[in-house]
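can u pls check wat happens w/ glutathione
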Amino acid sequence: MSSNPEITLHHLNASRSERIFWILEELSLPYNVQVHLRTPSRSAPPSLLKISPTGKAPALILDGKVITESAYIIYKLLSLPSVQSNKTELDIQVEQTDDDIFWSHYAEGSMMNLFQASAIVQATSAAYVNGMVVGQLEEGDKEAVKGYSGFVASKYLGPQVQGTIDFAEAAINKTQHGWFSGTDKPGSGDFMMFFAINSLLAGTRAGAFNVGEGLKGWYKRVLDRPAAQRALQKIKEEEEKAKSKM
Ligand SMILES: N[C@@H](CCC(=O)N[C@@H](CS)C(=O)NCC(=O)O)C(=O)O
């Protein structure tokens, strides 16, 4: 019987680390959590850069070694000897399918890429208009910044973001079991898609885009799982604990 590794998850609030909470709970692996709270500009605080070479979340310390990139973290967790030797007992897709690999790439390379660009345009233009970048602006300059960022958000990035959601919606509707893994259990593709869909239905992007019944059904299937419920509860408790210490 292989023993469990020593795990610490470095989590940034409202971040991709949500994916890692979910998989850790599905795997029933014991883990410690270290929360890093976003600065007022929504960036990661310097404490995260001390841990992660990229300064981004999630970062996982696995038996003393720091690993980053959520898809890689998920792959390393699924490859653990204690997980591999127990794979028939687990209610998740441990061996990655072709679909898992596709959706893992899609989640970061297509969806989050555009989601993030959109969030950056909104946050930076608001900061610019509010005088936080080059000081107070003339009314005409404010209108020009708002006009340009509004154009980028609504005519350029917005439709592309919606396109990525519609593509995922069509794909999930074609699956036999309603999981991105293509099997009857959620796999790495599902863990990776969780952050984007959670943000669209319950997070910072709620109500901003059209999400169809297929993705809503997938989200409900995720939330019906005790492991996902434990993950969301743990995120809440850990973030509250960290905020109370500030
Ligand atoms: N491709 C990376 C992306 C990591 C990433 O961009 N994380 C964001 C949170 S969702 C972050 O740490 N942002 C804080 C910052 O850039 O200051 C992954 O999947 O882990």
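Residues 139-174 form the longest helix (36 residues).
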